[in-house]
Amino acid sequence: MDKVVSIAAITGIILVLAFAVNLTPADNQATAEITPFPSREKVISVTGTATTSVEPDLLIITFGVETQEKTAKQALESNSQLMNGVVEAIKSTGISEDELSTSRLNIYPVYDNYRDEKTGKYTQELIGYRVTNTITVETNNLGSAADVIDGAVEAGVNRVDSVNFTLSPAKELDVKDQLIAKAVLNAKAKAENALSPLNHKIIGVKAISLSEFGMPPPIPIFSNFAMAEGQAIGAPTPIFSSEQDVTTTASVIFLIGSN
């Protein structure tokens, strides 16, 4: 039985070999043509940019009120009383409660360092507590900046931490959509200019990579402006906003072919 199986197997192998030997050149070519080849696509990678100047539509002002007393309770009460007056002064300029928020409230001890004449060692003595209360105004009324600042300072604000002009989230999204389309078109124009002397053209798109939309930093008018105790504000504060340049990019891989 084993001999019969072996003879049949050998016979099959001989028939396959004979068939392979008898293949014509045309048959060999047909066989070779169905063999898969690696992709031979031609591509060009280009990065396009788009920039636009945008008028800010959001004003952000951060104020601070600092008070210092012997006890934490006294410092907090003094600060709260002063801040209540500041808030009322800001609201009188047309700012609503929705446009006001507390940024932070800090309470920390204040020490006086001195050197003991007998021992020569430096020691600390607790002399009181300081409370810092910071509020932020966010409004679309850019023209109210000077009135808000002047009113807050007159009411007792002794720190103006920052005054910035920036874009609101809604305007940011609108500018983003416009810039993405323009960046892709800019990439296409660059690719066409590069291919023109090479007698090639764009025949498709393989991939598009969009950069994260970069918001420009807010335009600071001034920051960390501290008022001395009892200092009165002089002439009205002149404040002007200016346009912001916003830029985004798009990297595109184009498929190309001969003209």
Question: H/E series, N to C?
Answer: HHEEHEEHEHEEE
CATH level-two architecture of the domain at 57-167:
2-Layer Sandwich
For the CA atoms, what is the radius of gyration? 37 Å
Shape: elongated
Mean pLDDT: 80
Helix content: 25-40%
Terminal CA distance reads 69 Å
CATH class of the domain at 57-167: Alpha Beta
Number of helices: 5
Structural class: alpha+beta
CATH superfamily of the domain at 57-167: Protein of unknown function (DUF541), domain 2
Q: Could you describe the largest sheet, including whether it forms a barrel?
A: 5 strands, antiparallel
Low-confidence stretches: 1-21, 25-38, 228-234
Kindly state the number of beta strands.
Answer: 8
Strand order of the largest sheet: 3-4-2-5-7
Q: Give the percentage of residues in beta strands.
A: 35-45%
According to CATH, what is the topology of the domain at 57-167? Alpha-Beta Plaits
Q: How does this model look, in words?
A:
This protein is of the alpha+beta class. It has a domain at 57-167: Protein of unknown function (DUF541), domain 2 (Alpha-Beta Plaits). It has five helices and eight strands, in the order ααββαββαβαβββ. The chain has helices at residues 2-21, 25-33, 72-91, 145-155, 169-195; strands at 42-54, 58-69, 100-115, 122-139, 159-166, 200-210, 219-226, 244-258. The strands form two sheets. The chain has a five-stranded antiparallel beta sheet with strand order 3-4-2-5-7, covered by helices on one side. A three-stranded antiparallel beta sheet has the order 1-8-6. The protein is elongated, with a radius of gyration of 37 Å.
